[in-house]
Amino acid sequence: MNSTCLIFFPEGSSSLQQAEQELTKYDFDVRSSGGSLFAKRLGSQEFKITLVQLPHVLLEAKEIGQGSEHEQFLSKCGSRFELFISDLDAALDEINSLMEAQVALQDASSGYLFTPWNGQIMKPWNAS
Length: 128
Hints:
Helix content: 25-40%
Strand content: 25-35%
Order of helices and strands: EHEEEHHEHHEE
Structural class: alpha+beta
Number of helices: 5
Shape: globular
Radius of gyration: 14 Å
Strand order of the largest sheet: 2-3-4-5-1-6-7
């Protein structure tokens, strides 16, 4: 199963370079190619990370946050990291790498994570 999780944040508050630095802190080997990052570590699949800053991002963030406790924050998010997962079942079986990749991207952006397979929105661990 192919899936993508999204990390929403205000436009201009992060970059692929910051994402790369944070992923490296979590022991991912990171390479850059074609405007995307590819992060992998021993025992995990490779994750593809892109930065999207297009008008539809803000609209989707508002829609996802509507009626939730995170609505105010998401209504200001015109940027997002997209974390592509080629095999969601395998990633969930080895959940630590997926969780740490998500946290690294949240650390890089102070962004909110949205996982479409279960509809959850999670604020960063370091948020108050």
